[in-house]
Amino acid sequence: MRIENHPVLDFGERKAVKFTFDGKELGGYENEPIAAALHAAGMRDISHSLVKHRPRGLYCAIGNCSSCMMVVNGESNVRICLEPLKEGMTVETQKGRGEIL
Q1: 31-65 burial, b for 16+ CB within 10 Å, e for fewer?
Q2: What residue ranges of the chain have pLDDT lower than 70?
Q3: Alpha helix (H) residue ranges in the chain
Q4: How many CA atoms lie within 13 A of 42 on its CB side?
Q5: Most buried of the four, 12, 77, 96, 99, by CB within 10 Å?
Q6: Are 69 and 47 in contact (CB under 8 A)?
Q7: Which CATH architecture has domain 16-92?
């Protein structure tokens, strides 16, 4: 689900891009948050709780929490609610706390 028309906001022309999420090719718009592209593609469960492994969706969507951390282009702990989408990105669900490099 994606808002295409809004009474106040003007989205203007947007460039469509492709990216990979957990091995599946998806589409979105360049420079929109990765989380927005995943949400528009119907992906609601973006992580799992550390203890009971229950599915989690977006929580704050402004970078204050850690519920949207994923592996982006091989880098762990990227907050996808803030990270702009680029052509050819590889996004993967992060298992646990991720790797610290």
Answers
A1: ebbbbbbbbbbebeebbeeeeeeeeeebeebeeee
A2: 100-101
A3: 34-40
A4: 2
A5: 77
A6: yes
A7: Roll (3.10)
Distance CA 98, CA 15 (A): 31
Cα–Cα distance, 97 to 49 (Å, whole number) = 10
H/E stretch holding 92 reads strand 90-93
pLDDT of residue 101: 59
| pLDDT for the residue 15 | 95
Continuous segment of H or E residues that includes residue 47: strand 47-48
What is the domain partition of the chain in residue ranges? 16-92
Side-chain half-sphere CA neighbours of 60 within 13 A: 9
Q: Which two tokens stand for residue 39?
A: 């949400």
Residues with Cβ within 8 Å of residue 35, at least 6 apart in sequence: 46, 58, 61, 68, 80, 81
Q: What share of the chain is helix, strand, coil (3-state, %, to 5)?
A: 5, 30, 60
